């Protein structure tokens, strides 16, 4: 079994350091042969933490989740995988919340408009969509599955830190079973609404939605383009909200659009002809890393941080020479294959983010370290 990668990130306070010449590296450019002496003037060390990660899981409990797979049903395999994920070591800083779909219409439904010609006539996502001249959300209070996004924006288990929240999530899954249809549009909109509200209240956290489903939408708004647009709108917002999709079945083609709109490329396929439990667990772990990325908080010292005197140093686990990574303006300026890092907001930084290719290298190093040093002029790409 692959050992988890452990990053030791430290902040080094430095005194007496002048500007660094990025050309004294002998290698140059954005690759691995950069200057190695950025931490030479360190006088004290303090640990820097990775950014907290908050996940809101929207879990399909439609009747098809009761289909048989190896070792049980889709439902038992998926819920068992979630339990295993929540019980893993090393999840300090990760928080998880959960809601199911479909759910019965609840008190969140306040729709009073019944007839319409467009979705706008229905007064927003909680009452729409407008289908054949009728606002479906207005009828969700009359019984059956809810088409009101607000019912899904209210979690069965609120986002809370692991490991403590695991008990509540386990209990909630134990009280549910696959019996409903699949109102994907309302469930996704509700998940996005709740995650964005949570994001606004937890600005320093990385927040993401996970939609786990085994099929195409069967009720409410079933137009795939409309559903993709929900995820795309969230991904285009400031701050952006990513939507990850786990498809339990043999084909995720209709789910890929949600993931693409949500900024995550394509859906994870959990093949029901294989080990559903393990594949779902693998998908959850992949999402955890993808949602968080290589993001570090900027620790505050005894005085103000000079953001022009910050350097990021990667120490390979094989004992090789440390590599000082160059700063780039933003993700768009990251080299395709070389190293780099950037601030989440150059005007008012709160996080240090590693470029994708750098992150891939570091996450693949089982014993590597990342140091964040202060006091010497930032090496710029």
Q: Which structural category do the helix and sheet elements fall into?
A: alpha/beta
Q: For the report, how would you describe the main beta sheet?
A: 6 strands, mixed
Total beta strands:
18
Strand content: 15-25%
Number of helices: 9
> What distance lies between the first and last C-alpha atoms, to the nearest angstrom?
37 Å
Q: What is the overall pLDDT average?
A: 82
Could you say which overall geometry the principal axes of the C-alpha atoms support?
globular
Radius of gyration from CA coordinates: 23 Å
Order of helices and strands: EEEEEHEEEHHEHHEHEHEHEEEEEHE
Binned, the helix content reads 25-40%
As laid out across the biggest beta sheet, the strand order is 9-6-3-10-11-12
- Could you list the spans in which at least 5 consecutive residues all have pLDDT below 50? 1-38, 42-48
Summarize this structure briefly.
The chain contains nine helices and 18 strands. With 381 residues, the chain is of the alpha/beta class.
Would you write up a description of this structure?
There is one protein chain. The chain is α/β, with parallel strands linked by helices. It has nine helices and 18 strands. It has helices spanning 74-86, 136-139, 149-153, 166-174, 184-201, 224-236, 253-261, 276-292, 356-363, and strands at 9-14, 42-47, 53-60, 68-69, 72-73, 94-101, 130-131, 134-135, 157-161, 206-213, 242-248, 268-270, 295-297, 310-315, 323-325, 341-343, 351-354, 369-374. The protein has a six-stranded mixed beta sheet, with helices on both faces. The protein has a five-stranded mixed beta sheet with strand order 2-1-18-14-15, with no helix packed on it. A hairpin with a 2-residue loop joins β7 (130-131) and β8. The chain is globular. Mean pLDDT is 82; it is low at 1-38 and 42-48.
């Amino acid at each position: 079994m692959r050992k988890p990668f452990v990053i030791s990130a430290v902040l080094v306070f430095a005194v007496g350091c002048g500007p660094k010449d990025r050309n004294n590296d002998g290698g140059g450019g954005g690759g691995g042969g950069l200057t190695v002496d950025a931490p030479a003037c360190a006088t004290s060390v303090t640990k820097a933490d990775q950014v907290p990660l908050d996940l809101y899981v929207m879990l399909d409990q439609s009747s098809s989740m009761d289909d048989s797979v190896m070792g049980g049903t889709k439902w038992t395999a998926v819920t068992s995988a979630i339990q295993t994920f929540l019980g893993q070591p090393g999840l300090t800083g990760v928080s998880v919340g959960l809601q199911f779909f479909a759910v019965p219409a609840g008190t969140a439904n306040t729709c009073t408009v019944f007839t319409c010609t467009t979705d706008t006539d229905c007064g927003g996502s909680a009452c729409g969509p407008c289908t054949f001249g009728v606002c479906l959300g207005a009828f969700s209070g009359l019984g059956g599955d809810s088409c009101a996004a607000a019912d899904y924006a209210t979690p069965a288990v609120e986002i809370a830190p692991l490991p403590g929240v695991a008990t509540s999530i386990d209990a909630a899954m134990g009280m549910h079973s696959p019996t409903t249809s699949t109102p994907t549009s309302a469930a996704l909109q509700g998940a996005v609404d709740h995650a964005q509200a949570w994001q606004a209240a937890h600005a320093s956290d990385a927040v993401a939605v996970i939609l786990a489903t085994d099929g195409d939408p069967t009720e409410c708004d079933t137009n795939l383009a409309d559903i993709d647009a929900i995820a795309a709108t969230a991904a285009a917002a400031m701050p952006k909200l990513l939507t990850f999709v786990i498809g339990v079945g043999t084909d995720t083609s209709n789910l890929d659009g949600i993931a693409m709109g949500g900024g995550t490329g394509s859906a994870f396929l959990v093949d029901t002809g294989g080990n559903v439990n393990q594949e779902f667990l693998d998908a959850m772990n992949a999402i955890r890393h993808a949602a968080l990325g290589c993001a570090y908080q900027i620790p505050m010292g005894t005085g103000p941080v000079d953001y022009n005197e910050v350097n990021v140093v990667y120490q390979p686990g094989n004992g090789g020479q440390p590599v000082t990574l160059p700063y780039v303006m933003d993700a768009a300026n990251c080299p395709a294959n070389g190293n780099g890092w950037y601030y989440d907001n150059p005007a008012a930084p709160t996080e240090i983010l590693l470029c994708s290719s750098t992150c891939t290298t570091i996450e693949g190093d089982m014993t590597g370290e990342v140091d964040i040093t202060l006091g010497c002029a930032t090496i710029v790409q």
